[in-house]
Amino acid sequence: MKQSHDLTLRRSGRIAKIKEQTIIAGLVVCSMIAILVTIGIVASLAFEAFLFFQKVPISSFLFGLEWSPQTAIRADQVGASGKFGVLPLLSGTLLISTIAMVVATPLGLFSAIYLSQYAETRTRDWIKPMLELLTGIPTVVYGFFAALVVAPIIRNTGSGFGFDISSESALAAGLMMGIMLIPFISSLSDDVLSSVPKTLSDASLGLGATKAETITKVVIPAAIPGIAGSLLLAISRAIGETMIVVMAAGLSANLSLNPFDAVTTMTVQIVTLLTGDQEFDSAKTLAAFAIALLLFILTMGLNMIALKVFNKYRTIYA
Amino acid sequence: MPEHSLTSSAQLKARHGRETRFRWMGRIAILLSLGFLVFMFVAIGMRGSSAFSQTRILLQINFDEQILDPQAKRDPAQLALANYKPLITKALKQLFPEVTKRRDQRRLGRLLSNGAAFELADMAAKDPQLIGTTRDIWLTASADVDMLIKGKVDLGVEENLRRLKDTELSWIRKLQDNGHIKKKFNSAFFTKGDSREPEMSGIFGAMVGSFFSLLVCFVIAFPMGVLTAIYLEEFAKKSFITNIIEVNINNLAAVPSIVFGLLGLSIFLGVMNLPRSTPLVGGLVLALMTLPTIIIASRAALRSVPNTLREAALGLGASKVQTTFHHTVPAAMPGMLTGAVIGMAGALGETAPLLMIGMVAFIVDVPQGITDIATSLPVQIFLWADSPEKGFVERTSAAILVLLAFLIAMNLTAVILRKKFEKKW
User: Fold this and answer.
1) Structural domain for B117, as ranges
2) B228–A33 CB contact, under 8 Å
């Protein structure tokens, strides 16, 4: 009697163990998804980009100065091959991102400094959520606002001073993107500034430095790596941002660094190349994947560097 | 000595001046950022609020049996297909007997929306009893009239550059004097799909599309994200593989959304041949994008559950799996849900990846399921923002207001969830 009881116990124990192992195996499979997605992104982009580079040599893609992806209706048409030089897109992306960072960096950093060093807890408690609301606004809203309100204001101001500003100027898109990035930079930098040990600033204040001197000469130098990391993340975001530039920047690929010109970006071209009807393996469609691969490499690289900088920073003051 | 103190007090003054200026720069930065937020809300609110009302024109419609249903069958399907335009023309003739020229009569008819006849058709199909009777009905005015009544047309412009000429204006004035033209609540905006006519278009189709996409997104991303978090926090030992997983999750969070769209295009549509332009594919792509957010939030929630809870369960003889699923996970659930809601809010506002998988078509019908072609609320905003008609500007702004209302509601839910279930361990 006792023996059989033991047996069933042991058997149910074994079943439970198998059950648990299955559950754990399921967990492992789920956590592999993250890797699978990355592999999926890299594989799909690389595969299509590879097909593209068979039609257009990689050197003329990376170093070409002209971007005009024509659709050939007939294979023997003049200019059927199109020009796939990515440099004008890269310069447009950089121009708009630079404008965005010029707007967002001072505003974001000063907000972060004020919030983390000066503001009382009560003020902080309601300003922070408000600023975070800015991050939660969908980018299509920023894009609409840029095209409808900001661009006309800039054009009218410009013509008031006698400048001829394109209605799809890099300035409008860049300004809007900068505003989008303010809360992003400020909340990251806020965390960074708050984590500088208080002993450092106390020592400086104790020696008679004013608060501003303490911040500029002690706190910020100590936080520089973290701030640099958050700025890098912001740049990576600006480069990958799509809707604002699709709605407010232009389509014409100009190799120009004039903020009043209309320029186009990598993301804009991906969207224009892939929306609408097209056959799946034309050079035009495949070019979008090549641009996306470049975009992925750029943002990934920036992100990796930023994470490294952050981690290094954390180990200093942990 | 006095000299020295003099210079140092001047120096001190300068230093204090710098301090004040520095502090003000911080204040100004915050004021500028928040001021911009307010400016944007007000500007969009002002443009969009007018779309919640719609100009309508009161006409005495005679549902003439001769025209609509000569065989007197009263078949709703047949009635829906009948021609209701003559009824409107007739009613207008009654109101404006002085308009006799054919061309002018046609222009008179254009005061009403092209959709007005369909409104009558819908009414008759729903209630065949109407046939043969005469009713006073408020019909939707055309977008031009609507804009005029809402004060968005500049009448200072020369007549031949205006869409509404002086004759039309005199007719509208007559309607106004008789009380036959009025702004009413625009319920169609919340119950209809897209349309080529601004005055007939609504956001319901896009809202349903967004709902289905988010449903798919949640059903996939939430369990997967939570299970991944559980594995990484509760079971995994630090190893090369878990390290790679963590780096991957962090990097995925920073991949531009449009790249996810391309992944969807080439794998879900290209390799797996899932139906294009559907919430199913949209939801899948959004799920991959939201996954990192949910994983990161869920891990934080699991980490905040104190070890004493786990140890108590383990001490009473529960296995590791039992401890985790019976005790740790329920305790962390509110935090996980909060993360999920925030992730969903992000997914709701996402546009670019949906453009890539073709959810960007002109779709009139309201989708019935996850495999119907559909669009989403932000994509609808993008489409309308591209439309040249003036009437779409207010609709775009109004759609943005609705989208923002949803987002704020979701974020508030997250805050309340966190506050209500937050435990101080």
Assistant:
1) 52-186
2) yes
Confidence grade of residue B161 (pLDDT, cut at 50, 70, 90): confident
Question: Which pLDDT score is estimated for A279?
Answer: 59
Pick from A179, A181, A178, A169: which is nearest to A248 by CA?
A169
Residues B172, B156: Cα–Cα separation, whole Å: 17
In this prediction, residue A73 has a pLDDT band, given cuts at 50, 70 and 90, of: low
Q: Are residues B163 and B210 in the same domain?
A: no
Contact A136/B345, CB-based, under 8 Å? yes
Shared domain check, B224 and B103:
no
A291: CATH: 1.10.3720.10
B405 and B269 together in one domain:
yes
Q: Is residue B1 very low, low, confident or very high in pLDDT (cuts 50, 70, 90)?
A: very low
Q: Do B416 and B278 share a domain, yes or no? A: yes
Residues of A in contact with B267 (CB under 8 A): 40, 44
Question: Which of B248, B257, B358 lies nearest to residue A34, judging by beta carbons?
Answer: B248
The last residue of one of the domains, among B155, B186, B217, is B186
Cβ atoms within 10 Å of B150's Cβ, excluding its own? 16
What is the reported pLDDT for B80?
A: 80
Residue A118 lies in a domain: yes
Of B27, B33, B244, the CB nearest to A131: B33
From the list A26, A108, A133, the residue facing B227 with the nearest CB is A26
pLDDT for B415 equals 82
β-strands B53-62, B181-185 pairing = antiparallel
Clarify whether residues B300 and B413 are in a common domain. yes
**Closest among A112, A116, A306, A313 to A225, alpha carbons compared:** A313
As a whole number, mean pLDDT of residues B285-306 equals: 93
Residue B232: give its domain's CATH number.
Answer: 1.10.3720.10
Structural domain harbouring A97 = 83-317
Across the range A139-158, mean pLDDT stands at: 90
Question: Residues of A with CB below 8 A from B251's CB?
Answer: 38, 300, 303-304, 307
Contact A97, A239 (CB under 8 A): yes
Predicted ipTM of the assembly: 0.88
B252 and B353 fall within a common domain: yes
Domain count of the fold of chain A: 2
Count CB-CB contacts under 10 A for residue A298: 18
Contact B250, B322 (CB under 8 A): no
Residues B215, B268: one domain?
yes
* Residue contact A267–B352, C-beta within 8 A: yes
Residues in chain A with CB shorter than 8 Å from the CB of B359 are none
CB contact under 8 A, A138 and B263: no
* Domain assignment present for A75: no
Are B23 and A212 within 8 A, CB to CB?
yes
Closest CA to A178 of A260, A272, A245: A245
Mean pLDDT of B382-399: 89
CB contact under 8 A, A233 and B260: no
Residues of B in contact with A279 (CB under 8 A): none
A139 to chain B, closest Cα gap in Å? 8
CA B241 → CA A3, B223, B232, distances in Å? Answer: 44, 21, 11
**Which distant-in-sequence residues (6+ apart) come within 8 Å of B393 by Cβ?**
A148, B47
| Closest chain B C-alpha to A251 CA, distance in angstroms | 14
Q: How far is A253 from chain B (nearest CA, A)?
A: 20
CB contact under 8 A, A141 and B19: no
**A13: closest CA of chain B, how far (Å):** 11
Are residues A10 and A137 located together in one domain of the fold?
no
**Chain B residues in contact with A300 (beta carbon < 8 A):** 251, 254-255
**How close does chain A come to B16, measured CA to CA in Å?**
7
Long-range contacts of A151-154 (CB under 8 A, 24+ apart): A151/A248
